[in-house]
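Input structure tokens:
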């Protein structure tokens, strides 16, 4: 929910600028995940040589299902990546997976948000992206080969679907 996003940004003392510490990188990663539906491991492993900001996509060579995937980037996703551009020559995010998880949990706990996991961004992203993309484009973007897998993450309510009928 937007309230939780706002609380996390406030707790990280992040105001949409270049991050000055690792916690601010975590909030950028969180927002980036909502834009792209990427998994935490995919985000942590992302390197600049696989990011094409001008063409608005990135390449994931190692995904959960073992296949290469091109991820299209929204304008907001490009903005978020641009904030990280000068921090490291190789890695987009400078945290390793263990410190990433620890920093995420500390940030979440500081906000007293009990039932939020980083992977929840994938559900949120799919629901948001489903408002903009055709189902096959959505499945391709997030790396699902069958629609049953996609349905696990797609959480639109009946009233949200109804608004698209008119």
């Amino acid at each position: 929910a937007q309230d939780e996003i706002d609380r996390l940004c406030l707790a990280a003392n992040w105001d949409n600028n270049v991050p000055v510490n690792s916690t601010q990188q975590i909030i950028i990663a969180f927002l980036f995940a909502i834009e792209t539906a990427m998994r935490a491991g995919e985000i942590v492993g992302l390197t600049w040589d696989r990011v094409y900001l001008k063409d608005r996509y990135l390449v994931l060579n190692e995904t959960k299902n073992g296949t290469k995937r091109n991820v299209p980037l929204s304008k907001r996703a490009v903005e978020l990546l641009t904030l990280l551009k000068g921090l490291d020559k190789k890695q987009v995010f400078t945290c390793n997976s263990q410190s990433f998880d620890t920093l995420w949990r500390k940030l979440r706990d500081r906000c007293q948000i009990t039932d939020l996991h980083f992977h929840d961004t994938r559900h949120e992203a799919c629901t948001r992206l489903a408002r903009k993309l055709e189902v096959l484009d959505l499945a391709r973007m997030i790396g699902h080969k069958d629609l049953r897998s996609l349905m696990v993450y797609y959480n639109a309510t009946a009233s949200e679907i109804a608004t698209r009928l008119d």
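The longest strand covers residues 57-60. Residues 22-36 form the longest helix (15 residues).
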